């Protein structure tokens, strides 16, 4: 079990994630089958191979005439190639006739090519000379204006890999495979609790020394935006027994529990103590080499993740994005290097050696892209997050970045 010896033995973000990982791998073995129409934003639990070739027939990409390309060679407006039209292919029907030399058949976009045809002449290049006689005014090459069988994908090819987040285009791909039910992770259940004698609900008027609950709602919004089912459990004062009862309930009902406040060193900070008392392995870290976010705590209680986030609003939001979101989207156990947008830094950024820093920035249109402007302000100010368009990450061993340098940023909007 974790102990008070962990108190402010500062861990890197990577170390913190690695310490939690062995206890929660079972999260990612769960599977829920959901209807395709409900799959947007969900995450696949397994690789999806193609069950058939798509398309499974040669199809036209133009309205026009299916032909043998060799019959059009040398055709021009002054001397069109003459073809005998065998009729018209209808959408959704297989052709009943095959083409011989000097023959063609009218075809719509998406129509199935007949046997013998190897290209399509677009309708603008056809002249109708009456009855079944047509002229082609420009030659086509074999394979022109058509899609071959399996050109999109072939049977057995892995099209979507495990951990893929389903977008509209993935929904369309799954539909093309005939998948009415999709295997995804169940949504993570996230419980959020605000703590502290000074915290009051938004509807109350603060007395001197009191603050309205901001973090409960920012964290709720972040959890929902990350794809979790989230619930705000309200506010608990700095009372050990009351906090113990609420936490025990939250751990039964959720996969991830977030506490806002109660994570700094002090006599009245109870969260770290309770994490170690409520179950195994308990507290795993107290303190991150992170700015903002140093007083973050984290642990595992009987297979459930539990985090104590800083009380400062900007700090809590940054820590959620860096430490909590990766469990919800799976990137904590399946890291991927996603290309991030870049911009030119407008001011020098300084960072203390030995810690990672997440800097709030505004994005200003620039002649050749984006200019990245730091949003100055303390981590206790929620407005700095409202003003920020993105976050710039300064690595652990980087002391700063000079103005004029290109930096990558993660969008917040």
From TrEMBL:
Biochemical pathway: Cofactor biosynthesis; molybdopterin biosynthesis
Protein's UniProt keywords contain Metal-binding: yes
GO biological process, one term: Mo-molybdopterin cofactor biosynthetic process
SMART domains: MoCF_biosynth
Alphabetic keyword roster: Magnesium, Metal-binding, Molybdenum, Molybdenum cofactor biosynthesis, Transferase
Domain of life: Bacteria
Gene3D superfamilies assigned to the protein according to its UniProt record, in alphabetical order: MoaB/Mog-like domain, MoeA, C-terminal, domain IV, Molybdopterin biosynthesis moea protein, domain 2, Molybdopterin biosynthesis moea protein, domain 3
Catalytic activity, reaction form: adenylyl-molybdopterin + molybdate = Mo-molybdopterin + AMP + H(+)
Listed cofactors: Mg(2+)
InterPro entries membership: MoaB/Mog-like_dom_sf (IPR036425), MoaB/Mog_dom (IPR001453), MoeA-like (IPR038987), MoeA_C_domain_IV (IPR005111), MoeA_C_domain_IV_sf (IPR036688), MoeA_linker/N (IPR005110), MoeA_linker/N_sf (IPR036135)
GO molecular function, one term: molybdopterin molybdotransferase activity
EC numbers, comma separated: 2.10.1.1
Residue ranges of domain MoaB/Mog in the record: 191-330
GO cellular component: cytosol
Biological function: Catalyzes the insertion of molybdate into adenylated molybdopterin with the concomitant release of AMP.
Family assignment from sequence similarity: Belongs to the MoeA family.
Stated name of the protein: Molybdopterin molybdenumtransferase
């Amino acid at each position: 079990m974790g102990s008070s010896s962990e108190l402010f033995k500062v861990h890197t973000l990577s170390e913190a994630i690695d310490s939690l990982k062995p206890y929660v791998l079972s999260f990612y073995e769960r599977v829920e089958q959901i209807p395709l129409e409900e799959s947007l934003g969900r995450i696949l639990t397994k690789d999806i191979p193609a069950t058939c070739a798509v398309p499974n027939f040669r199809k036209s990409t133009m309205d026009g005439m299916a032909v043998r390309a060799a019959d059009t060679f040398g055709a021009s407006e002054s001397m069109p190639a003459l073809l005998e039209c065998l009729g018209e292919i209808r959408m959704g029907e297989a052709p009943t006739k095959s083409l011989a030399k000097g023959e063609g058949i009218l075809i719509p976009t998406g129509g199935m090519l007949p046997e013998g045809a190897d290209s399509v002449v677009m309708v603008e290049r056809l002249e109708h000379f009456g009855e079944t006689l047509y002229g082609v005014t420009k030659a086509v090459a074999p394979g022109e204006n058509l899609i071959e069988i399996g050109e999109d994908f072939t049977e057995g090819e892995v099209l979507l890999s495990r951990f893929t987040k389903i977008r509209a285009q993935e929904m369309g791909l799954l539909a093309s495979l005939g998948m009415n039910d999709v295997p995804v992770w169940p949504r993570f259940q996230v419980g959020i609790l605000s703590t502290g004698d000074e915290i009051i609900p938004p509807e109350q008027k603060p007395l001197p020394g009191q603050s309205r609950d901001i973090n409960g709602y920012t964290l709720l919004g972040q959890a929902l935006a990350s794809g979790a089912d989230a619930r705000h459990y309200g506010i608990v004062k700095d009372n050990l027994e009351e906090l113990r009862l609420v936490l025990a309930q939250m751990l039964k009902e959720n996969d991830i529990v977030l506490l806002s406040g109660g994570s700094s060193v002090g006599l009245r900070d109870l969260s770290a103590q309770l994490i170690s008392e409520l179950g195994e392995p308990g507290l795993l870290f107290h303190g991150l080499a992170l700015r903002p976010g140093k007083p973050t705590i984290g642990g595992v209680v009987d297979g459930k993740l539990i985090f104590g986030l800083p009380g400062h609003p900007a700090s809590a939001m940054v820590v959620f994005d860096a430490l909590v979101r990766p469990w919800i989207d799976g990137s904590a156990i399946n890291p991927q290097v996603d290309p991030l947008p870049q911009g030119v830094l407008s001011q020098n950024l300084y960072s203390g050696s030995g810690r990672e820093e997440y800097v709030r920035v505004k994005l200003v249109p620039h002649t050749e892209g984006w200019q990245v402007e730091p949003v100055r302000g303390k981590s206790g100010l929620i407005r700095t997050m409202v003003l920020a368009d993105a976050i710039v990450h300064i690595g652990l061993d980087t002391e700063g970045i000079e103005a004029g340098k290109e930096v990558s940023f993660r969008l917040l909007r």
